[in-house]
Design brief:
This is Multidrug resistance-associated 4-like. The chain has seven helices and no strands. By secondary structure, the protein is mainly alpha-helical. Helix 3 packs antiparallel against helix 4 and helix 4 packs antiparallel against helix 6. The chain is elongated.
Length: 259
């Protein structure tokens, strides 16, 4: 990806701010290398454990299947509904992060000019504005996550209520009822983690898309590669005069950029 960006044409740097390019090498690569494998492993492990415990519960007490099967369907529906909304929120968070990085980079490059012009307060206010925009998107994601957790708690409470009162209908002993409640309580904790971890894994997928798009950029025409000089090479003689002639020069805007 680094080699592709070095060979990218000029319009790529004109249409993409510095923060967006830095975001590919910092946040996206970090999530793809560190968080994505762990999220997939945790989601897959919890799913296998949850299905195994549900199978044991249904085989030992078949009447539990009356509630377990609809609850699994509701879990899947909640996951699909939550992923569609939260994925867009994560995209907004990623988009709001790029102006923040661009502002920090531009501020560091022109720090001497900013101090000479005494514009520190203005740039500080701009930084707070970009930071608030990015933080608000993060709070939206936390609110959506709590929305999912609240509904999962309600569904698990319904299942626990059914498990607690079903033995009275089946005329089972109190010892078996306590074992069932304890067993189902452990199972519910695992079932709650399954949709959360799968949603977390889906949220990390866009970082792969952005990294893949950065690796498939169009190469600049006439690029011949980088020339590396050795330390012992003699420097070229400085030129005392020169001239550049332009003939039949044509300027055209990039087709995907609106002007």
């Amino acid at each position: 990806m680094f080699r592709t960006i070095l060979r990218a044409p000029i319009y790529f740097f004109d249409t993409n701010p510095v923060g967006r390019v830095l975001n590919r090498f910092s946040k996206d690569l970090g999530l793809m290398d560190d968080m994505l494998p762990l999220a997939f492993f945790d989601a897959f492990q919890l799913t296998v454990f949850g299905l195994a415990i549900l199978l044991i519960s249904v085989l030992s007490q078949p009447y539990i299947a009356v509630v377990v099967v609809p609850i699994i369907g509701v879990f899947v529906w909640l996951r699909q509904y939550f992923v569609k909304s939260s994925r867009e929120i994560k995209r907004i968070e990623a988009l709001s992060r790029s102006p923040l990085y661009s502002h920090i980079s531009a501020t560091l490059q022109g720090l001497a000019t900013i101090r000479a012009s005494e514009e520190q307060n203005q740039f500080h206010e701009m930084y707070n504005k970009y930071q608030d925009c990015n933080t608000s998107a993060s709070y939206y994601y936390l609110a959506a996550n709590r929305w999912l957790g609240y509904r999962l708690d309600i569904i698990c409470a319904i299942l626990m209520t059914f498990v607690a009162f079903a033995p009275f209908i089946a005329y089972e002993t109190g010892l078996v009822r306590k074992e069932q409640i304890t067993f189902q309580e452990t199972n519910l904790r695992i079932l709650q983690g399954c949709p959360r971890h799968w949603c977390c894994w889906h949220h990390l997928i866009p970082c792969i898309e952005r990294t893949s798009n950065a690796k498939t950029l169009q190469r600049n025409e006439g690029y011949k590669g980088l020339t590396i000089k050795r330390i012992g090479d003699k420097p070229e003689q400085p030129r005392t005069c020169g001239a550049r002639l332009f003939g039949q020069l044509v300027l055209s805007f990039y087709q995907m950029v609106s002007h």
